Structures are given as C-alpha cells and as structure tokens.
C-alpha cells in the first residue's frame, strides 16, 4: 500500500489494504454525513454556537464538542466519521491501535459508537506504548501493547 510503513504490517501480522487521511474524510463529505446521522438520531445539540454530542448519555463523563463556535470541526468529529466510514464499507468489528496518550479517549469513542446506533463492543481499542529492549545487538525500540475496551 502506498505510504504505509511495511514494518507496521509485519508487526501487526496483518495486510494493510488502505491508508486513510483525515483530509479525505472531509473531501468525500464523510464528516458532514456523520454529523447528519448523529443529528438525525437526536444525539446532538447546540450551545453557545458550538455543536455538541450527547456522549454523557452513553457512558462518557461529559458531552463532547463536535464543531466549535468558530465552525471548526474537532478531531473527534473526524474520528466519528472514520468509524462510520468503516462500518459503511462492511466492517462489523473495528480495531484501533492507539498510543498510550489516547487512553482517555476510549469512553467517548464507545459513546459515539452507541450514538451512531452500533454496539460499543464491536469497537476494540488496543493501547500501545514503546519500551527499550536490550539484545545482542544493543538497545532498540520494540512495541508493547495491551488491549483496552
């Protein structure tokens, strides 16, 4: 796949078929479609000029901004659009591999999954970090991962 690091595919023991950019979601209208789907399900509301998602109704600790009062989309909005896009392509099990700094993001993504009408258990998030490993060839970086749901 063009642009993909072949080491990642080997480390995950998976074939990577598609590399996604956030820009492509905006250009294809996927972000707008996700916002429309959430609004159609009554999952959004507007306060102080910002569009919010009712994630607290689905297990998150608070509601989350989707579109700032400036009109700018948050990264969360693109993440929701990507999740919806994957489902539209026929995937019923979604696996994300995230860095340890994204651990706090799990509840909001599961809540977004519910807000879109999907089973939150179909979303699997693996939190990965790096460590330094010693070997006969000296220290090197190696992945260490644990699953979080």
- Going by helix content, strand content and strand pairing, the class is alpha+beta
- Under the CATH scheme, the architecture is 3-Layer(aba) Sandwich
Trace the largest sheet across and list its strands.
Answer: 1-2-3
Q: Number of helical segments?
A: 5
The oligomeric status of these chains comes to single chain
CATH class group: Alpha Beta
Through-space gap between termini: 29 Å
Q: How much is the average pLDDT?
A: 84
Silhouette:
globular
Strand content bin:
25-35%
Outline the low-pLDDT stretches.
Answer: 144-149
Order of helices and strands: HHHEEEHEHEE
- According to CATH, the homologous superfamily is HUPs
The number of distinct structural domains comes to: 1
Largest sheet: 3 strands, antiparallel
Q: What is the radius of gyration?
A: 17 Å
Give the tally of β-strands: 6
> Would you tell me which CATH topology applies?
Rossmann fold
Measured as a percent range, the helix fraction is 25-40%
């Amino acid at each position: 796949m063009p642009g993909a690091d072949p080491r990642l595919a080997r480390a995950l023991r998976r074939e990577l078929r598609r590399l996604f950019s956030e820009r492509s979601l905006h250009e294809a209208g996927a972000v707008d479609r996700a916002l429309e789907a959430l609004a159609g399900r009554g999952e959004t509301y507007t306060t102080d000029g910002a569009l919010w998602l009712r994630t607290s109704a689905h297990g998150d600790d608070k509601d989350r901004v989707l579109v700032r009062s400036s009109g700018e989309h948050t990264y969360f909005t693109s993440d929701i659009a990507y999740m919806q896009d994957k489902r539209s392509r026929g995937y019923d099990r979604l696996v994300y591999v995230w860095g340890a700094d994204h651990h706090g993001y799990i509840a909001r993504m599961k809540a977004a999954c519910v807000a879109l009408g999907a089973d939150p258990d179909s979303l699997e998030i693996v939190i990965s970090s790096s460590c330094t490993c010693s070997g006969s060839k000296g220290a090197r970086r190696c992945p260490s991962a644990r699953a979080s749901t």
